[in-house]
């Protein structure tokens, strides 16, 4: 299960690493869904190249397809980013815990430093 999840997270980040694929997802998030030809319009690349980008997004489970007559309609999958979001939340929680520990350690060191300073002043 963990290995499959790591593969899925890696596929999502790989899909998001390309600006064209991110642009496609942005269009889908604002337009809802659309045919491949409409999605390809703002990009200065061929339809076969758009199809390859869509295949990468589909393999990462970030989009879904359905046929409508002769055309394919593409839509963003609302749950597609969830594994990457969960992974980032887990990392952030670990970092927060580490920073909280560091903060507690630094606070304790400052407290000890003040105590030592007072002791040294009283000895003089």
What's the arrangement of secondary structure elements?
Layout: H1 2-16, H2 19-31, E1 33-35, H3 36-40, H4 47-59, E2 63-68, E3 71-76, H5 82-123
Antiparallel strand pairs: 1-3, 2-3
Helix pairs in contact: 1-4
Description of the molecule:
- The chain has 124 residues and is of the alpha+beta class.
- It has two domains: 2-76, Winged helix-like DNA-binding domain superfamily/Winged helix DNA-binding domain (Arc Repressor Mutant, subunit A), CATH 1.10.10; 81-124.
- The chain is 71% helix and 12% strand.
- The chain has helices spanning 2-16, 19-31, 36-40, 47-59, 82-123, and strands at 33-35, 63-68, 71-76.
- A three-stranded antiparallel sheet has the order 1-3-2.
- β2 and β3 form a beta hairpin.
- The termini are far apart.
- 14% of the residues are buried.
């Amino acid at each position: 299960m963990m290995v499959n999840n790591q593969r899925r997270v890696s596929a999502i980040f790989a899909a998001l690493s390309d600006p064209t694929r991110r642009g496609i997802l942005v269009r889908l998030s604002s337009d809802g869904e659309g045919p491949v030809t409409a999605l390809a319009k703002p990009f200065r690349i061929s339809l076969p190249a758009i199809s390859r980008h869509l295949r990468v997004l589909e393999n990462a489970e970030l989009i879904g397809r359905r046929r409508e007559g002769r055309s394919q309609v593409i839509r963003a999958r609302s749950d597609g980013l969830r594994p990457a979001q969960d992974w980032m939340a887990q990392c952030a929680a670990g970092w927060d815990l580490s920073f909280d520990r560091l903060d507690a350690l630094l606070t304790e060191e400052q407290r000890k430093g003040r105590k030592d300073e007072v002791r040294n002043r009283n000895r003089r």
